[in-house]
Amino acid sequence: MDKQCLECGNKIVGRIDKKFCDDACRNAYNNRVNKDSKNLIRNTNNRLRKNYRILESLNVERKTKTSRAKLIEAGFDFNYFTSIYTTKAGATYYFVYDQGYLPLENDYYILVKREN
């Protein structure tokens, strides 16, 4: 019985466990199958990257105070961050990789950069 390529249906020649006739069909098949999950990951990474750039541009001194309005005006999305750090004193910092922010009173934030 001849095996057929999962993508194009052509006859497969070669190893017994081969599923595709060539690399192009293998890539096309996997791209089609993983399309939805790749879009979610790509969109999330894009939002994280944008947040990181905003924090980096506003925090050139490694520790800066800014307003919520300024962050929102720049396009910052508070729903996307990579980690949360709570100090012994109970302050909760939100980080996008090594750039972080601490919510203060009156819609202000302290921007920090975590040292390696």
User: What's the total count of β strands?
Assistant: 5
What Rg is obtained from the alpha carbons, in whole angstroms?
Answer: 23 Å
Strand arrangement within the widest β-sheet reads 1-5-4-3-2
What letter string, H or E per element, gives the SSE order? HHEHEEEE
Q: Give the termini distance in whole angstroms.
A: 59 Å
Low-confidence stretches: none
- Please outline the major beta sheet: 5 strands, antiparallel
Number of helices: 3
The share of residues in helices is: 25-40%
Mean pLDDT: 93
Proportion of residues in β-strands: 15-25%
Structural class: alpha+beta
**Shape estimate:** elongated
Characterization of this structure:
The protein is an alpha+beta fold and 116 residues long. Helix content is 35%, strand content 22%. The chain has a 5-stranded antiparallel beta sheet with strand order 1-5-4-3-2. Strand 4 and strand 5 form a beta hairpin. It starts with 22 loop residues before the first helix and ends with a strand. The mean pLDDT is 93.
Brief rundown of the structure:
With 116 residues, the protein is an alpha+beta fold. It is built from 3 helices and 5 strands; from the N terminus they run ααβαββββ.
Record the SSE blueprint.
Elements: H1 23-33, H2 35-58, E1 63-67, H3 68-73, E2 83-86, E3 92-96, E4 99-103, E5 108-113
Antiparallel strand pairs: 1-5, 2-3, 3-4, 4-5
Features:
116 residues; 5-stranded antiparallel sheet; elongated; alpha+beta; 35% helix
